[in-house]
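Re: [help] complex structure
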Amino acid sequence: MTLLKYLREEVMEANLELVRRGLVLYTFGNASGISRDEGLIAIKPSGVPYEKLKPENMVVTDLLGRVIDGDLRPSSDLATHLVLYEYFPTIGGVAHTHSEFATAWAQAMRPIPCFGTTHADYFSGQVPVTDSLSGEEIQGEYEKNTGMAICRAVAKDDGDKVPAVLVAGHGPFTWGATASEAAHNAVILESIARMAYHTVAIARDTFPIAKQLHDKHFLRRHGKKAYYGQSK
Amino acid sequence: MTLLKYLREEVMEANLELVRRGLVLYTFGNASGISRDEGLIAIKPSGVPYEKLKPENMVVTDLLGRVIDGDLRPSSDLATHLVLYEYFPTIGGVAHTHSEFATAWAQAMRPIPCFGTTHADYFSGQVPVTDSLSGEEIQGEYEKNTGMAICRAVAKDDGDKVPAVLVAGHGPFTWGATASEAAHNAVILESIARMAYHTVAIARDTFPIAKQLHDKHFLRRHGKKAYYGQSK
Amino acid sequence: MTLLKYLREEVMEANLELVRRGLVLYTFGNASGISRDEGLIAIKPSGVPYEKLKPENMVVTDLLGRVIDGDLRPSSDLATHLVLYEYFPTIGGVAHTHSEFATAWAQAMRPIPCFGTTHADYFSGQVPVTDSLSGEEIQGEYEKNTGMAICRAVAKDDGDKVPAVLVAGHGPFTWGATASEAAHNAVILESIARMAYHTVAIARDTFPIAKQLHDKHFLRRHGKKAYYGQSK
Amino acid sequence: MTLLKYLREEVMEANLELVRRGLVLYTFGNASGISRDEGLIAIKPSGVPYEKLKPENMVVTDLLGRVIDGDLRPSSDLATHLVLYEYFPTIGGVAHTHSEFATAWAQAMRPIPCFGTTHADYFSGQVPVTDSLSGEEIQGEYEKNTGMAICRAVAKDDGDKVPAVLVAGHGPFTWGATASEAAHNAVILESIARMAYHTVAIARDTFPIAKQLHDKHFLRRHGKKAYYGQSK
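Output below.
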């Protein structure tokens, strides 16, 4: 149960980071984390105001989404999270928001081009947008099918390189090695979505930065020879 | 008098929510609530700064707008509220703001299209805009006629499904089962107004989401088989 | 000296209102107040950070701008204020900011059209923009000539009806019955500048509201038969 | 060591100013300061969250960027700072951010025109944008080459007159007589970037203000006959 306690606290903290950074309104959004060894997932309960959330309110489920521990219903987007955990074997956390500018790009159904090094520091390539779901997909297992649409938009091997996607007409999902990193990526995504929005407003014909500059910045942080930060 | 006390406190709280969420400036905006059993309405007084408001300052009127209890003048928009309470028999609260982006759509006299699931979660269809008032309507019972214009823009039966309208050249009115829900809807409206604004700035030719997706999200929250949140 | 103390405190408070509402950055902006009976003006000193300001730092001058009391230099825009006090005989305060959206309209050299009732509640007509100063006017008594350009843009009798102007390529000046009202009008001006900006972004071809609606709202607050607020 | 202590505290404070003004997110951005007499530079460490920073964490290097004192790695942009200190012999501080609007202009690869006196008060001319780096420059000494691109964009003698540049596809660098002034200029730059953005959104065809007005405002603050502020 120590593990559960730790996982819940980490997931709780990731959800609160979304609030602190202004990414969610009322009960919008949700973050989850997974313990792959135990086969357990902790996720925010559905529709509970953030100011009332406590770590013990995080709902714990198995990998099929069955509630293992907790009194509340899990987020209605749980099924989307499950698909992502299965598809990307190395990720440890998922976050979903309706943050203003990332959602605007998702609603406009346009991928976010990489216009600068801020984007390149975190995302190796444009942030893709999913196809729209078909009527059948919407009326069937909607949340699961949302996850499947994400998988079609991001190659299985690119999970670490492009840890974000825009669900068409809906909003962003991000992920990372932990719930905390997933939330962190949601914050960064909103920031680069804002800057890309303003960039095209200044000059519609702006083109993405050169691949060499893009790779330089991504690898300066994430490659084998990374030299950003204090780790060795 | 216990009822009056409760109604005033709820209306006071709804007005303060508009302040907390940055929807009003100085004395802008107003929220009201109704007790249909007693035939009483409580509403913010006209032109009093929010920081000086106390529950007992809420003005209580009958359904014709005559002051029953309270020392202050009611909001100058009271007559608009009265029309809405009469027209939509199930609503319990009304809110009016000049929030920045909803007002911009109202000034541009364009309905807000449903570009995404955030909108669909709350409003079943576009947020409509009223016709402009005629010279006669302006010089006659202006505030009442504003209410009548709202009624022409929203079908009587749609009050629960589209609890918001943009008054052309003026700003938004929202409503709900309670004063608190009316204020909540005002906050959501401003958020989806912002996102719709940014969406068309990214891609002028964005079209609304498919009706199936729209219905899915609205009913996931509001239909008989709703499964969002913790209620059963 | 009691009068001086009161005037300084009021002017200090008006300057702080500009800070609280996010209209000024660092030492930008200035507000002043006049006592016409005594022939004295109090104004913010030049280039002093707001967090260090105290009422006694407000510089007191006569109507020609000569320092009567105070150890600091008055705002470099004092000469502009002096022209306005002379031109509009009923005003008691002046405020100047570089607030973001009002300044953008001033830089674009476009008057702010009245697109809605928020604008009409405060300004009876569009907010005008001055002509650009000539080379001679810039190299001569620049700040005084800025005031003269404002006078050319607003009819002498319209001071109470349109208490704001945009100085081309510079920023807004507002005024009012007191320093406090001048600052209040600066806050309102920024708000309507934002909403007008967003309105034209949604629909370039938006036209101003009808004169009847404009007059209705302005007179609802400012006319002889005003019924907004609590005064009689 | 008293000097080192003072330099570190000043650099620490300049970095915190970037946080207070909303110019940086997480570990983004960096500010440095130089003591030319001692041949020492203090700079923010790489990738350390601002809330954990203490003055003693500032890394002290010599003019070649070799760490003289401190346990952490310096900012990965140190080499860019070094080039600027060598090129502009009178500057005492450098700041780099990814602030939202200045970065958008950098990403759009457009210089910021001087549309108003707010800009003219601080920058004598447009804020230039560098050329894009070549593939060789990116794969070689990237950060040093970024500095060289800045030098090509700003004449050596213009360091005091235009203390800011936009690195194409990256973001702004600013400088000043001290680290504190460099950070101050970063804040001002973001403000004028916002206002210029809004100006062109209102009117695409806005042209820069006349040179006479530009010079008047710049010299009112910075010329030999400056009369803004309290200094003599």
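Chain C touches chain B through 28 residues (CB under 8 Å).
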